[in-house]
């Protein structure tokens, strides 16, 4: 019990940990609002307010987040030229997303012209979707490399403890990358809903489930081991 509490404290001490928790609030309230909208307008209104407040607070909390892309590229540019290029495009898209998200937040709270909100939302979502596509491609390449590396280790005649340790590390990395792919695909649906509104991506259930998949996959990846 104490171990779980300690992990929760560590999780909530992270910026990403708080973001995933508030994101859960945002999309649970979106789904509840949709579910009770016709039967209980008063409750629906309260959950809608909670959704909007959670969304705006996440934008405020992400102030300056676009700078993290530079740090990621500096620390881990990629082992090959193709992975380096994918990392540059992925992080560039994410930086565009977070940078213009600042202006979207300011437009939503009417600190700047509220009419700019739609344009800022489009630019932010476009950068976001570009970033997600390249992150997904990069993760699939690394997953494939991991599968090949594991097969090579398993086909080895020697079953040393060091090899078993490497196999375990590959499996852990695979799970984390699959969680990243799930989160990025889910967030891509949300971004597409902003870029090119359509009945499927813009449906409340699609947005709600996508938001929760992204939040909980991120929750898993950020939870202390």
TrEMBL record:
Keywords: Membrane, Peroxisome, Peroxisome biogenesis, Transmembrane, Transmembrane helix. It is a multi-pass membrane protein. The lineage of its organism: Eukaryota, Viridiplantae, Streptophyta, Embryophyta, Tracheophyta. Homooligomer. Interacts with ARC5 and FIS1B on peroxisomes. It is found in: Peroxisome membrane. This is Peroxisomal membrane protein 11B. One of its GO terms (molecular function) is identical protein binding. The chain crosses the membrane at residues 81-100, 120-143, 175-193, 205-223.
């Amino acid at each position: 019990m104490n171990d779980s509490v300690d992990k929760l404290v560590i999780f909530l001490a992270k910026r990403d940990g708080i973001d995933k928790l508030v994101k859960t609030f945002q999309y649970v309230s979106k789904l509840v609002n949709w579910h009770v909208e016709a039967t209980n307008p008063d409750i629906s209104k309260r959950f809608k307010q909670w959704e909007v407040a959670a969304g705006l607070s996440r934008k405020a909390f992400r102030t300056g987040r676009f700078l993290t892309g530079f740090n990621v590229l500096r620390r881990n540019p990629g082992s090959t030229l193709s992975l380096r290029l994918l990392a540059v495009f992925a992080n560039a898209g994410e930086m565009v997303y977070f940078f213009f998200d600042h202006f979207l937040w300011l437009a939503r709270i009417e600190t700047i012209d509220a009419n700019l909100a739609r344009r800022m939302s489009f630019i932010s979502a476009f950068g976001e979707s570009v970033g997600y596509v390249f992150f997904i491609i990069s993760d699939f390449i690394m997953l494939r490399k991991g599968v090949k590396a594991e097969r090579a280790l398993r086909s080895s005649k020697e079953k040393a403890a060091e090899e078993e340790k490497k196999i375990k590390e590959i499996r852990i990395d695979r799970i984390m990358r699959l969680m990243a792919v799930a989160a990025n695909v889910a967030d891509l649906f949300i971004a597409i809903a902003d870029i090119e509104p359509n009945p499927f991506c813009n449906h409340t259930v699609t947005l709600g489930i996508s938001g929760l998949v992204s939040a909980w996959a991120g929750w898993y990846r950020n939870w202390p081991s």
